[in-house]
Task: inverse folding
């Protein structure tokens, strides 16, 4: 009984203490807690959605996201103007690339009562700890880890991927829904698929003490990451193509000279396209010079930006570079001749194996053409008898000039006058291919209608504006003449095409299907669910019977016995390849021609098309062909031989074509004044 009484007394004492404490908290200090709670605020802050990742066809990341410490500012908790100015100076001291004027502009860009991120102030982990450990020097400031775009492979595939950067005033004006603290695609896939990559902003509500300290989250609506974009690119092939092109440019500088002045090559730009001939997938797309997409995330200064502009580094030459295709265009004339039965012989002697005899001077006289037309044409082929197949193998201009001349004489001023141009357009030359990239150029296939339009524009132009076409072309009977069509037949004159257009055309010529090329194969949401499976789009061409077999065979003759034999002779299996060289005149008196090669591999059952152009690079057989050969070797699993003059066998390239460079590995940097090909 005594023990029970003792326990009762103890329990009563403890209960009394608890009741007293509750009274003290609720009654005596209740007013203080109410005042403290009233002093707290809950403020919203939009959170940046992680931008969707971009991966190659095997899932390797090309554009991703890292988390970076970012300052959050509540301007209402900073203090008076003197305190704001002091804070601005402290913040500017965290980042050498930001001035106090820049920080002031960030403060002035948002309402005074709104929380905002200082995205442009780049912090590392030590900076973040310094801010958090010195809150008295950073009133109203906290640190949040936010998603930031990263390009781990540097400049590799830069022109396809593009870059994303902070939205400009123009971007925000055009799209009011853009997150001013996020990024927007400016070029490449980043721009074309920006809506899919954007994601959806989140919203956080922060509890903030009267001192300005953010003490925690009240609630949160999580941001939804952007979609994942899967490219058709294969990074291994992309790396091989990029490095082969750089070696090809170096080769041009080391070996090519201008015919008239003997001036050395100053080639510095070029492009390579690798297209899947069965689907239209872009396996590799190279444009040189390139740029580092990461520079635009971190902020690029005016001087660096101007240097890139001066080098035309932002131009994707694969889709924006307009070049005369030279002899690679002879494949179009080949198909036209085959389909129409119009060969390089007199109309009364035509046979499928039509032949002509080229005289010892390599000279073609066409006195029967209009007065304003060129009358005499010269070629490197001479003292030889050629048919369509040998003419293609040896790239005999006279054969294709004569073919165009026969077309002109049979169809001049008729509805069929443009059958050669119609064939080019059927193959996709001279117009946009429809590739899913921004800023694609359309090219040009000249004909009578185009020249009439140009003449009309010239007559309406102001007197101080330059001529659109030469004034002599406005004379009666001079606007469109037979010599113009003869130049079209060999890819010269006013013909302009992009490397991608030529790749699409050769895929059509080699398989019978003209594809709408694509660089993206699938789009998936953040859960991995496919939301858009991009299907190949192709148009079948009604090819003449026997054409595909003959054309493939003649392309094979070019690389095994014709103009590209020297470049391809180093291969273990050169018979698997086929294609066509091109040397496209620019200004024969002052500049080197564009160096071209377009071909397929394996030639008997085409899987890939490789198109190469080195701008003002010289002979196609000497420069572009070795570049294409290196890429084709990789595509069929051979060891890649160096890109050197004539394609002679040398030491293996000093890099493993199966490896992707590590992030930060020097690659595709500035070309020095003098280049040397890989040893």
Result:
């Amino acid at each position: 009984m005594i023990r029970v009484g003792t326990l009762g007394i103890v329990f009563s004492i403890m209960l009394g203490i608890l009741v007293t404490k509750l009274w003290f908290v609720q009654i005596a200090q209740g007013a203080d807690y109410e005042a403290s709670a009233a002093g707290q605020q809950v403020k919203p802050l939009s959170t940046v959605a992680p931008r969707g990742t971009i991966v190659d066809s095997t899932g390797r990341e090309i554009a991703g996201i890292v988390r970076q410490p970012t300052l959050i500012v509540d301007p209402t908790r900073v203090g008076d103007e003197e305190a704001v100015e002091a804070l601005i100076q402290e913040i500017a001291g965290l980042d050498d690339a930001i001035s106090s004027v820049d920080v002031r502009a960030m403060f002035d860009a948002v309402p005074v009562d709104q929380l905002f991120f200082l995205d442009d102030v780049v912090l590392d982990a030590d900076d973040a700890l310094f801010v958090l450990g010195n809150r008295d020097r950073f009133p109203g400031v906290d640190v949040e880890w936010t998603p930031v775009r990263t390009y781990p492979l540097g400049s590799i595939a830069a022109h396809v991927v593009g870059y994303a950067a902070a939205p400009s005033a123009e971007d925000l004006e055009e799209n009011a829904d853009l997150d001013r603290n996020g990024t927007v695609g400016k070029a490449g896939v980043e721009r074309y698929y920006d809506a899919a990559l954007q994601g959806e902003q989140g919203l956080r509500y922060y509890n903030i003490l009267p001192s300005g300290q953010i003490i925690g989250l009240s609630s949160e609506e999580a941001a939804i990451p952007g979609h994942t974009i899967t490219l058709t690119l294969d990074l291994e092939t992309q790396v091989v193509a990029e490095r082969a092109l750089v070696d090809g440019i170096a080769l041009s500088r080391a070996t090519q000279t201008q015919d008239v002045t003997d001036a050395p090559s100053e080639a510095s730009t070029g492009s390579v396209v690798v297209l899947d001939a069965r689907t239209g997938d872009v396996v590799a797309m190279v444009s040189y010079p390139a740029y580092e997409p990461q520079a635009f995330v971190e902020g690029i200064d005016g001087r660096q930006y101007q240097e890139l502009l001066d080098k035309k580094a932002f131009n994707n030459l694969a889709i924006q570079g307009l070049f005369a295709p030279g002899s690679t265009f002879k494949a179009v004339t080949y198909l036209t001749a085959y389909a129409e039965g119009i060969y390089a012989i007199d109309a009364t002697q035509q046979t499928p194996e039509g032949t002509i005899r080229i005289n010892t001077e390599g000279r073609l006289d066409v006195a029967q053409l209009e007065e304003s037309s060129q009358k005499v044409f010269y070629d490197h082929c001479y003292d030889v008898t050629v048919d369509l197949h040998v003419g293609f193998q040896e790239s005999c201009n006279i054969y294709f000039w004569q073919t165009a001349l026969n077309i002109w004489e049979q169809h001049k001023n008729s509805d069929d006058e443009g059958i050669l141009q119609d064939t080019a357009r059927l193959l996709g030359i001279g117009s946009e291919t429809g590739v899913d990239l921004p800023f694609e150029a359309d090219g040009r296939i000249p004909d009578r209608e185009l020249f009439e339009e140009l003449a009309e524009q010239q007559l309406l132009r102001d007197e101080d504006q330059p001529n659109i076409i030469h004034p002599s072309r406005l004379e009666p009977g001079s606007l469109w003449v037979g010599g113009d069509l003869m130049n079209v037949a060999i890819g010269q004159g006013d013909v302009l095409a992009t490397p991608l257009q030529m790749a699409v055309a050769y895929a059509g010529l080699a398989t019978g299907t003209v594809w709408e090329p694509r660089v993206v194969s699938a789009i998936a949401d953040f859960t991995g669910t496919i939301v858009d499976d991009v299907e190949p789009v192709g148009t079948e061409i009604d090819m003449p019977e026997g054409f595909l077999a003959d054309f493939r065979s003649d392309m094979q003759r070019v690389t095994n016995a014709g103009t590209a034999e020297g470049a391809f002779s180093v291969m273990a299996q050169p018979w698997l390849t086929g294609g066509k060289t091109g040397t496209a005149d620019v200004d024969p008196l002052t500049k080197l021609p564009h160096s071209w090669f377009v071909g397929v591999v394996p030639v008997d059952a085409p899987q890939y098309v490789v198109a190469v152009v080195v701008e003002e690079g010289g002979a196609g057989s000497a420069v572009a062909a070795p570049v294409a050969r290196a890429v084709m070797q990789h595509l069929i699993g051979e060891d890649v031989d160096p890109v050197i003059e004539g394609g002679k066998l040398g030491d293996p390239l000093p890099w493993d074509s199966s490896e992707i460079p590590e992030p930060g590995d020097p690659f595709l940097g500035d070309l020095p004044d003098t280049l040397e090909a890989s040893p």
